[in-house]
Design brief:
Chain lengths: 726, 86
């Protein structure tokens, strides 16, 4: 064992086209069943509708939560059935959230769907957390098809470091038109149903489902442990927005990293659960990666996507459940749909389910943007606990950049320091300044904002080494692409849509552009957590970035879309004016010498604001320590929450007896979810300035005198971030 | 045919947001994909949708796509030929 506390799967829940619950799923796998069938969820104008993996019996009434939410809740309930306490945290992988419900409204001819609290992908994790009584953070990983697996790796790191005792983690995606028509437009859907690894394969089958795992940190396996999560590896191809690296470079590196993380070698692996979507390119590139990891000593191999279809963000979690079943039941599932060996692939997957002892499973999940994840699951046995201690890393700021309606960094900070509003939306021309037109022609607003932030941030640092990882937070993602995709779809009676918009519509597309531009080959993680999206990205950076010295990019941004922004974010229409923006920081994971550092702090979804804030202060060392160490507070109060939280915030400040300035930053930067990324950059600038200027301190300049700035975010999530000098 | 090629140029520039390209910049006989215009596989899929939507011509395999999108002239000829046959 190479790592600290060991992490075990102590509860599992699953729902998919293969059945409801662990028992039904196992029985279907043992029968080598398939859940791929004709589409019934919505009417499709194609002469031959494409088959899907649909979960039957999920109600779609407007008064019910959307499909994805219902699937996630079903899996969560099963996973927690024997748990005696609520999990400390919920982490969910997702890509579509409430998209199907939104589509249904737009389908009825509403150009503008009504306000929906369930549209955002983060609303699924938040609902699961509420339902299971979890008071900790509810985080959402949205790295397309690897989301579920990336979520498990994030949970693993948090648990290893002792920052939580148990985490409910998984993935959920409901079927919707966006993915159904989107993958079709990419011509990577097999009309005959997915035949992973087969010579004649023509593509994937889009499906839906959810799986949740209760992960528990312990020194030795609890009695109810299904499997141990041995390790995980995250890499990025930085090659193409929707195609894998042809030689499977990123996939190979993810597998090797996962094995190293688990302290195992390729020879220890009994079974590889392939990503195996059934597309020509994915399967070939994955096969090359497999051969380079295992050479001619191949373990058992199969993809289950001929049975389950590809449930996108859910697939990594579904396949984690399967891995645990393999270990517990001594069983390996077959590669349903496979008939003929492909010479280019050069091996045959398992064609019949097989009984055999399974001790170690490697499970692959790869996504758009070349976001690769591999996980290792091991039979739970007694062994020596590891020794790695609580993470005390601080991330040193090497460079940063922000944008608001006032302009790029200097323009924004100049107005902010004078206490003037920066609210607004930058024109498309100014947004695209410095970006070659050809390079950004397929990018709409959010991707341009994000790439602009990255290019400027990197330009401010004298980098000798390539950037290790990218972490990005966005609440609503690429709204322009999402809107335009649906608009074109409905305008053509669901016959035509734009593949370019589809590829650009995934939440991780903007960070993918950054990774490609900067040739990032480490982790590339996009988080979505409403008003705490940037805070979640910073948290992911804190736990997932590698040990040792490297530079990573951490940013957050949300775009103003004239139709979608205000129907998916209640605070947007309450702002003084339409506003958007974002911020990005180049951080060094093990800085030397004096530097301004940025660290994630406390995060909770408890509704009691006062209790949350007091708990946050306790987390930061208590009232006295906070008053000693903190020279200014920057508070983000989303407009939709202002009335409710202000009295509690006043009580809190009174209780804290804080004497320094309190900056209500949304009044300067505006109402958009990732505004806290701008605030973090502004806090760094204030630290470098050494004082809070008079206009922001209600009077005289207020020296920080070496003390730091605590950023507090309020809303569904109460969170803190700390900027200080090390 | 020339008018048709000009029409295609305008539609392609718009569909692929080739903001810095004018119709005159596109040589009908030059390599369309992977050439100077920076058109790649995702653009080709966008053009597949465009051709089907505007002209009712379906290009549903990679092999066919490789021939049809070899150059703008090839694309124009394929569309006109297929429409006549249809």
């Amino acid at each position: 064992m190479t790592d600290g506390r060991r992490v075990f799967i102590t509860g599992m829940g699953i729902i998919s086209a293969m059945g409801r619950g662990v028992d039904e799923t196992l029985a279907a796998l043992e029968r080598a069943d398939t859940g791929i069938r004709p589409l019934t969820l919505f009417a499709c104008p194609f002469e031959e509708p494409l088959p899907v993996g649909e979960v039957c019996g999920v109600a779609n009434q407007p008064d019910k939560p959307p499909r994805t939410h219902q699937l996630a809740l079903a899996a969560a309930r099963e996973a927690l059935i024997e748990a005696d306490r609520a999990p400390d945290m919920v982490i969910l992988g997702g890509t579509t959230g409430g998209m199907f419900a939104t589509e249904e409204y737009m389908k009825q001819g509403h150009r503008r769907p009504p306000y929906s609290q369930h549209h955002a992908v983060s609303s699924v994790a938040e609902m699961v957390a509420r339902e299971c009584g979890c008071r900790g953070a509810a985080m959402t990983v949205t790295t397309a098809c690897s989301s579920g697996a990336v979520g498990i790796k994030l949970a693993l790191e948090i648990l290893r470091r002792g920052a939580a005792r148990s985490i409910l983690v998984g993935g959920a995606d409901g079927l919707c038109r966006l993915t159904y028509y989107g993958f079709n437009a990419l011509q990577i859907v097999d009309r005959a149903g997915a035949r992973p690894m087969d010579r004649d394969r023509r593509g994937m089958t889009v499906s839906e489902g959810a799986a949740m795992l209760l992960l528990t940190a312990a020194d030795q396996p609890p009695d109810n442990a299904w499997a141990e999560v041995g390790g995980g590896g995250l890499t990025c191809d930085a090659y193409h927005p929707a195609a894998p690296h042809p030689e499977g470079r990123g996939a190979r590196d993810a597998m090797l990293a996962a094995l190293a993380d688990a302290g195992l070698s390729a020879d220890d692996v009994d079974y590889v659960n392939l990503h195996g979507t059934g597309t020509v390119e994915n399967d070939l590139s994955e096969a090359k990666a497999i051969k380079s990891v295992f050479s001619d000593r191949l373990p058992q191999l199969s993809s289950v996507k001929g049975s389950f279809g590809h449930s996108l963000a859910a697939s990594g979690a579904i396949e984690a459940v399967i891995a645990a079943l393999c270990i517990q039941k001594g069983f390996v599932p077959s590669n349903v749909g496979w008939r003929h060996q492909d010479e280019a692939i050069g091996f045959s997957p398992l064609t019949e389910p097989r009984r055999q002892p399974v001790r170690t499973v490697l499970s692959n999940s790869f996504g758009f943007g070349g976001n690769n994840a591999a996980l290792v699951f091991i039979a739970p046995t007694k062994s020596e606990p590891g020794t790695r201690a609580r993470l005390t890393r601080s991330l040193a700021v090497r460079a940063c950049c922000c944008m608001t309606g006032a302009g790029w960094t200097g323009d924004t900070l100049e107005r902010f320091f004078k206490g003037l509003s920066c609210q607004g939306t930058l024109s498309s021309d100014r947004l695209s300044e410095g970006l070659p037109p050809r390079a950004v022609r397929r990018m709409k607003r959010l991707a341009r904002m994000t790439l602009g932030l990255a290019v400027r941030t990197v330009g401010r640092a004298d980098l000798k080494e390539p950037i290790g990882d990218v972490y990005f937070g966005t609440a609503l993602g690429a709204l322009s692409e999402t809107h335009d995709f649906l608009d074109k779809l409905y305008a053509s009676n669901e016959f035509y849509t734009s593949p370019i918009d589809f590829v650009g519509s995934v939440h991780n597309a903007p960070a993918g552009k950054v990774a490609m531009k900067e040739k990032v080959q480490g982790a590339n993680v996009t988080m979505s957590g409403g008003d705490a999206s940037f805070e979640q990205a910073l948290t992911a950076a804190h736990y997932l970035s590698a040990e040792g010295r490297q530079s990573i990019l951490v940013g957050g941004a949300d775009e103003m879309h004239p139709i979608f922004s205000e129907v998916f974010d209640k605070s947007v229409p309450m702002g003084a004016s339409a506003a958007d923006g974002g911020g990005m920081l180049l951080l060094e994971t093990a800085g030397s010498g004096t530097a301004v550092t940025l660290s994630p702090g406390y995060m909770t979804t408890t509704e009691d604001v006062m209790a949350s804030l007091q708990a946050a202060v306790a987390w930061h060392g208590g009232r006295e320590a906070v008053n000693d160490r903190i020279g200014a507070l920057m508070v983000g109060i989303p407009a939709a929450w202002r009335e409710r939280v202000t009295p509690h915030l006043d009580d809190f400040l009174h209780w804290l007896e804080f004497k320094g300035p309190v900056i209500d930053y949304r009044r300067y930067f505006g109402e958009f979810a990732s505004v806290s990324a701008v605030a973090a950059v502004a806090a760094v600038a204030l630290m470098e300035n050494g004082a809070v200027p008079g206009p922001l301190a209600e009077g005289e300049d207020c020296p920080l005198a070496g003390r730091g700035i605590l950023l507090i975010g309020l809303g569904v999530t109460t969170s803190t971030m700390l900027v200080e000098t090390s | 045919m020339d008018n048709f090629i000009e029409e295609l140029k305008v539609k392609i520039i718009e569909a692929l947001a080739l903001e810095d390209v004018t119709p005159d910049d596109i040589d009908p006989d030059a390599q369309l994909v992977g050439g100077d215009l920076g058109i790649d596989s995702i653009d080709v899929l966008e053009l597949v949708m465009l051709v089907e939507k505007e002209y009712g011509v379906v290009i549903d395999s990679k092999e066919l796509g490789a021939q049809v999108f070899a150059s703008l002239s090839a694309l124009g000829e394929y569309i006109q030929k297929t429409r006549k046959e249809g």
